Amino acid sequence: MKSLEELKKLREKAQKELQARKTENKAKVTVGMGTCGIAAGARALLKELMAEINRRNLDVIITQTGCIGMCEKEPLIDVELPGEDRITYGNLKAEDIVKIVVEHIVNGNIVEDLAIARADKE
Amino acid sequence: MGESIYRSHVLICGGTGCVSSGCKEAQDALVKELKKHDLATEVKLVETGCHGFCEKGPIMIFYPEGVFYCQVTPEDMEELVEEHILKGRIVQRLLYKEPTTKENIPSYKEIDFYKKQQRLSLANCGHIDAESIDEYIAEGGYEALGKALTEMTPQEVIEEVKESGLRGRGGGGFPTGLKWQFAHDTEGDKKYIICNADEGDPGAFMDRSLLEGDPHAIIEGMAIGAYAIGADEGYVYVRAEYPLAIKRLQNAIDQAKEYGLLGDNLFGSDFSFKLQIKAGAGAFVCGEETALMASIEGKRGMPRPRPPFPAQKGLWGKPSNINNVESLANIPLIIREGASRFNSVGTEGSKGTKVFALTGKINNTGLAEVPMGITMREIIYDIGGGISGGKEFKAVQIGGPSGGCLPENLLDLPVDYDSLIEAGAMMGSGGLVVMDEETCMVDVARFFLNFTKSESCGKCTPCREGTKRMLEILNRITSGEGRDGDIEQLERLAENIKSTSLCGLGQTAPNPVLSTLKYFRHEYEAHIHEQKCPAGACDDLLNGYVVDEDACIGCTLCAKACPVDAIEGAPKQAHIIDLDECISCGACEPKCPVDAISQA
């Protein structure tokens, strides 16, 4: 270790590893993983989502939830940016994930044609 | 996915407490389940140090949700993976249940045990991988060392530590900054810094948990101390009974060397530091600094008179500085975030936080870090969850064999170094042994004296002979052969041993006797004059139990509880205990609904 700068660089790299444990003020994506969701392909969606988040080096919470009753529209995901409403996207295919990640999570614009519900922020 | 992130982290407590309650088996089962469900690349397993809530171990925390599961078994892993990780449903039955409200609490921050805690020195314990230097660095680790070496002079480092008000956490409570100043001011071509990890108080395990859960903090604290006093070499003296602590610390030392955080010219400065572990054989007296240094030198672990103090003539005759593990663990925070981060917590004379090990008759055994000045009642009832088995509180023993017992009426005493000394106890390393109504205080004093007598190194007469004589008297009293004048004799011996012993072991050994005499003198008197043990704990003083025939309602509950069938009587008629059969176990007494049973 030659300087504080070198340590700081090391720290930034190491922090990425810990980001799943820091949950405040972060975008959160919730994947519906009830039996209905899984049957409709939610696992593939989740994997695609993780790959995309990794490719873009984003700091996002990926979590999952059970059935919320809209089995018809599975697979479903919720996207919640800090301080904003929760947006639910439904009838998703794996290729839709890129669009949601880029448009909504990165740029902050709701992908209207895939969104099916909006819930007030908690 | 190589460099990729994991969507979920599962933190498994790998402290010694959880290892003994079976975390390894649970972890193996979890690995298997994750593999089975093809989740190994999505979920990262992290083995951490102690979370402190040892009572409920093994403990797992699932992130990003931050759900706290406790007392998990290998059989639970299938359900946890399928429900929590795959389907996102919290497994309710494995959550912590608040005993008073019976509510399931998913987030550990909401659990009463953690609510009143303030974790400064334990901040990383249970939250980072104890074997990963990267995770320590991610939380700001080694920044304090970098700051000290590149931006501060040794004197500035010492001033910051003085300003923080940090006092030695090993027992004495000597100001750490002042200690460093003495070592700094002594001229010498070679100096040493030593970490005292010879934790030996019965019931205390905070130093072990720190070494197991956050070993890099100790290394960083020592390196900063070495820079401040002008040392280039350090020793960690840790007892060989702590194999996991030694393993994790050695691993951390190796990693720090590899990263260039131990070795030559750290952070481009001309400061070099090397560190090694010395495993001690587990003698209590080696916690005393001069005995500890003798032990490192390969000699028999015996104290020597001071002066000269270690700061003048220490290890190998060179100026040396010895700090306790917990003191050192606070140093990185003080340097990184400034003295005010530390001294904004605590009381006038005792700054910061203190880690206490809760043991004995308490519901939540474990480790708790609290701000100085908190009351004993808050520690025992709010954090510790009160007395186990619904019994009554009697006393709390604080400070180990050097400390004292505090009774109920001192529970609201704000806990700091000075208030405890005033009350006849001492902070010590922070072991708290809680005792209930069934604990005999004479027996407690005897237990601790038996410990110090066995651990006395024998070098000085007052300690070697005095503790033996005191123990003899206590043995007599608890076996029903106490005599008039025993109490006075104990007090006389205690004062002599305290004022004439060579080292801290002897000087404090009589404290458990003195404090129990101060607060529970009537129990001594009952043993000596009435041949009775009020707590019903001393076997030799028990002559069986009797039933008050007028009060007995003949409910038969006592007879059912008796393990040797010594109680006779028909339903709805008075019962009689056969004293020849009675083994004085006391099982019948609490069963009686009308309190008709008492000691004979």
Would you kindly provide a written description of the structure presented here, covering whatever features stand out?
The complex is a heterodimer of chains A (122) and B (600). By secondary structure, chain A is α+β, with helices and mostly antiparallel strands. Chain A has a single domain, classed as Glutaredoxin (3-Layer(aba) Sandwich), CATH 3.40.30. Chain A has four helices and five strands; from the N terminus they run αβααβββαβ. Chain A has helices spanning 4-18, 35-39, 42-55, 96-106, and strands spanning 27-32, 60-65, 77-80, 86-89, 115-119. In chain A, a hairpin with a 5-residue loop joins strand 3 (77-80) and strand 4 (86-89). Chain B has 600 residues and is of the alpha/beta class. Helix content of chain B is 38%, strand content 15%. The radius of gyration of chain B is 27 Å and the shape is globular. The N and C termini of chain B lie far apart (74 Å). The A-B interface holds A 1-4, 7, 10-11, 13-21, 23, 28, 30-31, 33-35, 38, 46-47, 50-51, 53-54, 61-66 and B 1, 4-9, 11, 42, 44, 63-66, 85-89, 127-128, 134-135, 137-140, 142-143, 146-147, 150, 259-261, 266-268.
Structural class of chain A: alpha+beta
**Number of individual domains of chain B:** 5
Residue-averaged pLDDT of chain B, rounded? Answer: 93
Across the major sheet of chain A, the strand order is 2-1-3-4-5
By CATH, the superfamily of chain A comes out as Glutaredoxin
The share of residues in helices of chain B is 25-40%
List the uncertain runs of chain B: none
CATH topology of chain A: Glutaredoxin
Report strand order across the widest sheet of chain B.
12-11-15-13-14
Following the backbone from N to C, one meets helices and strands of chain A in this order, namely HEHHEEEHE
Number of domains of chain A: 1
Determine the CATH superfamily of the largest domain in chain B.
NADH-ubiquinone oxidoreductase 51kDa subunit
Low-confidence stretches of chain A: none
State mean pLDDT of chain A (0 to 100 scale): 89
The helix tally of chain B amounts to 22
Overall geometry of chain A: elongated
Largest interface: A-B, 36 and 38 residues
Total number of helices of chain A: 4
- State the CATH class of chain A: Alpha Beta
